[in-house]
Amino acid sequence: MSKRILSMVLVLIMASTLLAACGSGGGKNGSASNGDKNGGASNTVVEDTSNQYGDTGGLKLPLVDKPTKLTWMVVSEIQLNDKLIAKEIEKRTGITIDFQSYSKNTFEDKIRLVVASGKLPDIFNGLRPDELKKIGQQKAVVAINDYVDMLPNFKRLYVDENPWVANSYGDENNNLYTWPIYNMNRDVNHGMMYRKDIFDKNNIPEWTNTEEFYQALKKLKEIYPDSYPMASKTKGDIFRDLAYGWGIGGLNYPAYYDESDSTWKFAGVQPEYKDMLDFLKKLYNEGLLDQEFLTDTPESWTAKMTTDKSFVTWDWIGRMDLFYNQVSSENPEYDLRYGNPVGPTGNIRTLPKIDADFGMAVANNQNKEAALKLLDYLTSPSGSELITLGIEGVNFNFDENGKPVYPELADLPNVDIKALEDNYGMWVEGMYLNPDHRSVYYNFTEKEQEAQDKILSANKFEALDPVLNLTEEEIATIAELQTSIIKSMEEFNAKYILNKNYGDKEWNDWLAAAEKMGASKYADVYNQAQKRFDANNK
Amino acid sequence: MKRDRQLLVLFLPCLVFYIIFRYGPLFGLTIAFKDYNVFEGIFGSKWVGFKHFANFFSSSDFLLLFKNTLALGFLTLLFGFPIPILLAISLNELRVKWLKKSIQTLTYLPAFLSIVIICSMVMDFLSPSTGLINKLMVALGFEKIYFMIMPEWFRTIYVASDIWATAGYDAIIYLAAVAGISPTLYEAAKVDGCSRWKSLWNITLPSLMPTILIMFILKTGKMLQIGYEKVLLLYTPTTYEVADVFSTYVYRKGLVESNYSYAAAVGMFEALIAMIMLLSANFISKKAGGKGLW
Lengths: 538, 294
Fold this sequence. Notes:
The complex is a heterodimer of chains A (about 550) and B (about 290).
Chain A: H1 2-38, E1 68-75, H2 84-93, E2 95-102, H3 104-117, E3 123-124, H4 129-137, H5 152-161, H6 164-169, E4 179-182, E5 190-195, H7 196-201, H8 210-223, E6 230-231, H9 238-242, E7 255-258, E8 263-266, H10 271-285, H11 298-306, E9 312-316, H12 319-327, E10 336-338, E11 354-362, H13 368-379, H14 381-388, E12 397-398, E13 404-405, H15 417-424, H16 446-458, H17 472-498, H18 504-516, H19 519-536
Parallel strand pairs in A: 1-2, 6-9
Antiparallel strand pairs in A: 3-11, 4-11, 5-9, 5-10, 7-8, 12-13
Chain B: H1 5-23, E1 34-35, H2 41-44, E2 46-47, H3 51-58, H4 61-80, H5 82-93, H6 97-108, H7 115-126, H8 132-139, H9 151-179, H10 183-191, H11 196-222, H12 228-234, H13 240-243, H14 246-256, H15 260-289
Antiparallel strand pairs in B: 1-2
């Protein structure tokens, strides 16, 4: 009998430990969050330290009167919590930030999973504007304009100086759910690049128009028959990126604003689009365009661009120096330079001065005021200096030319924003809101300066499309049309170029199919919104 | 009841686990019948009945997805199912010990690679400019083939890479079953003058049959569960027409477009079909051989 009781007891103990193990995860989380809220001492004396840290735009530091902890989801590959910037923010504002960093590759999926769970971090970025509006209207993220009174920097930039921002980036009630980024872009940051050393060696001049571009590639193919002169790593996005040269590109691609008749159009069914496809088809058929341009990964593309397999590509401007640094030991001649745009307009895209597409947002919870104030501080000159330049006298000093120098990083061949991110937690995507133009990001290398001068002096920029404000219903229509029409468009693009038999007949079939899938309905949504936009801005 | 209470107590944690982690989440399926809004929660959202199902069945994607899912699942089953069995039997017949061991190790190794690595290896092997397979083909005097963008190759690539990745691992179960066959049967057969081929046919295969049947029923149930990761990693715009399946569609609709209710409806439909197939396979198997899963 006693044996029986003993075994019962044993079984019960086993069962209960199992259950306890299951439950402990939840318990831990619960107690931790309680600790955050109540852990701080309530009788700390708060001193106004605004004057110590430069121009805060009128904000009072510290931002909170008791220690506050915020969660912030950012795009980064490193742990930021113990970096200099995180500590300095805590010192200046009284806000401790728990950074949740995810690499660029996983971030997009991660943020959507987080949103789907309904448990938002206090500050995050990465949702598309239409998605933010949708969850903003569901009261999940804060409408920033409701708090303008406590946000002097936001008020100055986006209410007083650029009152159109709420009209363009907000929802139909002019509620703005995303914190824009101010004046970040350089003038030129993507475009065609070519191997100047190879071009020079073979006496091929740089192209100035599309025909010359084609002739240059042809000559290269003759001289290097094993090569595919033009390579690409952006897969299906190549059409979006090149579209500017044919005058049909835009931030809302595949919708774009046609300045000539002031209407919005669906790019994929325009005659210019066919011209672009025909051009790429010609390059492909003659072996001038990499046969794998639709499947190349960044790695395979890099391999081609650095080993004389390909000489021309479209990418981010920093690649010119990155590639050089990668291969300079074996090939000191390697010289990738910024080339003229391709396509009949000869233009590249214009980058907006105020960009709300990063989707910086603040969750609607008890921490929202602290989070908003923190963003406002980072928008102020003082905060912007901290995030993009550093702390003078601590991690950097200005040299005699007024350029920042980072003594601890003296050993690095190149102090770029990636180095600043790795070492100090500066320049983290989703954290910079108003970059200080004294930062290294605006130190152009010689090649970048050349690119800048080349495009600026000839003013080769496509006009910026108006930033429209779509209603919830319009967003839903676009979202509904989007999946099938963009999928079919990508499919058609690829087939049109790769398949020798594709020609005018297939183009016309595509036009009919696109119409059936709602191509003109897609453009109409924008045209309706444009009417409201014009009426508002009269 | 009273007699078994010790056993019941032992079973308790398992039951709790199932209730919390297996049956609890089923409740979330209700969002397929609602216009789900994350921030109002499952209870707060509006009921809409079968709206999402109706939309899905009437959309132009439905037939294509159905066809693709079925085709990929069926082909994987058709070609992928017999191979582990053949592998296990041939390994069993192999008398050279070191060869047997090394073949086994080589074949089950890919099962430990992540799907991302498997897919990038596939892409590398098949690349027209640098890929091993195309280089071989050129050396043998054939034309290069750009496999990854040709719709007619997608299914072959999918199924072949699946077999490569899983066959060795699946064979372990059959190897275990083969090892369980009593050696006296073989000895008796040998005494009766049975050839190796005959004993394979008359002893090994029939003894394996119950395992094969059970595995087959299980695989049928999984036939439609095509992992979206693999298709996502392997497909390109030109192969959408044969590659887009329920799970990739659910991924795009649900995650990329935040259309949770619609995605849940599609996912539920997929699960329902899988259940019907499992039940019918079990039924047929019971009718035919008297053995089933339950």
